[in-house]
Design brief:
The complex is a heterodimer of chains A (about 50) and B (about 240). Chain A contains one helix and no strands. Chain A is mainly alpha-helical. Chain A is rod-shaped. Classes of the chains: A mainly alpha (about 50), B mainly alpha (about 240).
């Protein structure tokens, strides 16, 4: 089991990068959904939507 | 709507199962390599990620060509979604490479042709995202990103050919490397199976990122409408095209 730690590190890095990326996209997506909701409400109040 | 949601759930589940099966194949099906032993199993995720990134950048270029031909915002959304996701996979390549290199070569990094061209590729797509952030006007941003995405793709064949054109520290090609190259049939099967899994994962990530871009476009239209009601119909016409 020589260099097994390097093998585990590589697979950990793969998932860490993918999850970190997915996390940032999900965060931006939530922010965009909230912004969209707020704008729609704002336009509805103004009688335009 | 419910049908689309169910299909999307099915695609995500399949991608997750495929990734799990690839993990099993890498650790329990692929044979042990004679000289490097366990650490060689990094090969499957390293190469699969590199190929997935290459496909991502091809998609950026294709989306760029389509945008320049039709000026449909959805092609711009696809371009940025593929570029950002491709960048995540290139990051995996650039980190797993040194983790593999250290126990095998005795060094983390060397400026050889394959490593340098891959690093340049990573920088080029960071620049793609920076350019997008610098240009505020949506149509100008989309045109610039499309043109840049087409030209940036030129580095992908250079990365692919680098180990064929130059003698490098990086090993020569085991697939498509000509006479003397080759890979054990089980190793080859596991590699292609893992690549399929990373492509499925890529598709899921691109779909989510694409949705973010489409929401941003909708927000932009509503902002224009809120600020200047007469501007909205023109913007909506752009969306309909």
């Amino acid at each position: 089991m020589k260099n097994f730690d390097s093998l585990l590190a590589a697979y950990f890095i793969f998932w860490a990068v993918i999850f970190a990326y997915q996390f940032t996209v999900a965060k931006r997506l939530n922010r965009a959904e909230e912004e969209l909701k707020r704008l729609k409400q704002q336009l509805a109040l103004a009688g335009r939507a | 709507m419910r049908k689309t949601h169910a299909l999307w759930l099915l695609v995500r589940t399949l991608a997750a199962l495929w990734m799990a099966a690839a993990g099993y194949a890498i650790f329990f099906v692929a044979p042990d390599e004679r000289t490097m032993h366990e650490v060689q199993r990094i090969f499957y995720i390293h190469v699969a990620s590199a190929w997935t990134a290459g496909m991502a950048y091809l998609l950026v270029a294709v989306a760029g060509v389509l945008y320049l031909m039709n000026r449909q915002p959805r092609h711009d959304w696809l371009g940025v979604a593929a570029a950002e996701t491709g960048l995540a996979f290139t990051t995996v390549v650039l980190i797993t490479g040194p983790v593999w290199a250290k126990p095998v070569w005795g060094i983390w990094w060397t400026w050889d042709a394959r490593l340098t061209t891959t690093f340049v590729l990573w920088l080029m797509y960071i620049a793609y995202l920076l350019i997008r952030n610098l240009v505020e006007e949506p149509q100008r941003r989309a045109v610039l990103a499309a043109v840049y995405g087409i030209f940036a793709f030129a580095d992908v064949p250079v990365v692919y050919m680098s180990i064929r054109w130059w003698r490098t520290q990086h090993p020569s090609a085991v697939i498509g490397g000509g006479a003397g190259s080759g890979l054990d049939p089980t190793m080859k099967a596991v590699l292609f199976f893992t690549w399929g899994a990373t492509m499925a994962l890529f598709a899921v990530l691109v779909r989510v990122r694409y949705r973010l871009e489409s929401l941003r476009f909708e927000i932009e239209l509503l902002r224009q409408e809120a600020e200047e009601p007469s501007a909205a119909p023109a913007a909506l016409r752009l969306q309909e095209n």
